[in-house]
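Hi V.,

You were right to ask for the full record rather than a summary. Here it is.
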Amino acid sequence: MIMDRSGILLMCTGLWAAVFLPATSCTASDKGAIDQIFRSWATSQGGIGAETLVTGYSMEDSMEIKGAVNVATNVHILGTRSGHFRFEIKTPSVGTLVYGFDGNIAWTARETVGYGLWPGFRSDPMVWECSLFAAYVMVPTNTLHYAMDRESVEGVDCYVAGVAVPGSVDEKCLFERSTMRLRRVVRPPPLTSLGSPTLTIDFGDYREVDKLWVPFLLKVSDGHSVYTHRRSGVVINPSIDRGTFVLSTAQVAEANEVSQILDRMVGKMGKPDAISHIHTRVTTMDVQSPTTGLHSSQTISQKAPNLVVVETHTPGMGLQRTGFDGVRGWSSSEIEGNRPLKPAEVSQLQYATNVDFFGLVGMSCPYRHLVGDRIVNGSETTAVILAGAMGPSATFYFEKETGRLIRIAMPNADNSGTTIDFSDFRVVDDVEVPFSIDHETPVMKTVSKVLSVRNNVNLDDAIFRQVDDE
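Predicted structure:
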């Protein structure tokens, strides 16, 4: 649910700096009006006096995401002028997700699953998008500005100001001519970035709430997806229990303990930065199913950043190839023919075959609950429930002696379980790899033995593409 448009607003740290910094001269016909906007921006929106009277606020927000994934959900927002916040996101599939900050510690929780610390909250777009003062902080603190040719936003005539941003291409701020209110900010990627999209932020449906002009519509487009926030209610200075922003001391201690368990596991998997030196990998495996008697040979080819193809040959069933070519996922089988993979299948393929699978466990699972000590295959382990923002939770078992992850147990819809056991760890190019993987469901057991792991071999991109006539 958290949206990865990180770092876009780090320059907006001085909320009212644009009011007090001197405006430089503009050269176009709208020079005077644009200079006036930057001199009096906060005052014209009800700020300065009115803003200082805001100690806290409550907002009801309907958020819609359209793009690679489509999501519609409701968000209840509590915030304070000093920066505390709590966002409660209602989802029909997994219940309520909560994101909070008490002034010192940021955290996140998932209903009935667990919670964890949220170290990257300061650069997360969710924070500024859910702020009452989103429109205010978007007026750049750097006021080296100039007039540009007039434009319109959804038919509304606007003044256009170019704003110089150090280390980046100049951005644009568009203000409605009749009201001087901010309607759009166009923020190009920094000069040093590679492949970062242009960010367009639209503001609309301004309404006066206790002398503050608040945009009830916020729309953000990053070139891939559009994030739309529609406020249905804003309350200034409601009664807020400050405890709603806080994790208990015991919860913080538990979250820190789980983080240490995950950090120890990552450290055990290899030397620092060893994974980053692996650009391609080819793994060959022998796969047997004692349940069915089937015996297959499998080759997994991977290439950074996300190309993968899995080739499985089973006597009597032929060859099956499943892959992702950087654009689409696909499957080719001598029995079933060709078909595209669904987005969920692509995600599962990339996650399960990732070179840094063990390192991704912590990053992809912010919701955590410490279960306690358990015995797995004769080894003492610490069991931890982990989950992402969507999908089911699973229990991960970390060997106490070594710190390795040796089992993942996942519940099924019928309350039965699936387990994946890792063993026979060996070091390949400074990275530990489990050479034995047992996968057991209520109806089948599969035993996979790694025969070889070769890193940084030359792989042609063509092998990751589906052959149409297969």
